[in-house]
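Lab notebook, bench 4. We co-purified these components, and the gel suggests they stay together. Before we commit to crystallization screens, I want a quick structural picture of the whole thing.
Request: model the full complex, all chains together.
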Amino acid sequence: GQNIDQPTEMTATEGAIVQINCTYQTSGFNGLFWYQQHAGEAPTFLSYNVLDGLEEKGRFSSFLSRSKGYSYLLLKELQMKDSASYLCAVRDPSYGQNFVFGPGTRLSVLP
Amino acid sequence: SQTIHQWPATLVQPVGSPLSLECTVEGTSNPNLYWYRQAAGRGLQLLFYSVGIGQISSEVPQNLSASRPQDRQFILSSKKLLLSDSGFYLCAWTMTGSNSPLHFGNGTRLTVT
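Here is the predicted assembly.
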């Protein structure tokens, strides 16, 4: 079966750094994806890891450890506009190459 | 560049009425196409996916159906809507045979009254 876990909610202060964790148990693995979803809008793609290690994209970085079934999204220099839900998704080849999504973490950035 | 169009943006329908949501992708060929639903405050639920014209896989048995009459067109339908069909419906695409991410349309917010 497939299971992806994320914290439900997090709060951080403008200018700070926040780390959003994601753990997964899936039958197969062909990449881990992070999405940002503002309230009432569609998810937008942020980052992607298929190999272990850190991928950096400006203020956002994502880390993957396949042996631990673990990833995190690191957001630096938080801005008010970063208040959104962050979704972790795994592409599972045993699931028809489909994407299994976690429940999402709602991040509130306070002034 | 590739773009995905989904319409309508919002829809209010009475219980028992039919439904048709449409999605088209431009700038790519033979994409994998997906329909997801997101209930208020919940995660994304995969409803249907398609790897080619006329090929539809259903993930959740319910009163919804999907069709892919053309390579880049994906339609979600229902003959009779239920109250529980209310939600945010998202069409998405990805390139076949690669590790490319899912790209979502803007979504349709459906309210069944």
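The two ends of chain A are 41 Å apart (CA to CA). Worth comparing against the SEC data before the next meeting. The interface with chain B takes residues 30-31, 33, 40-45, 48, 50, 87, 89, 91, 96-99, 101-104 of chain A (CB under 8 Å).
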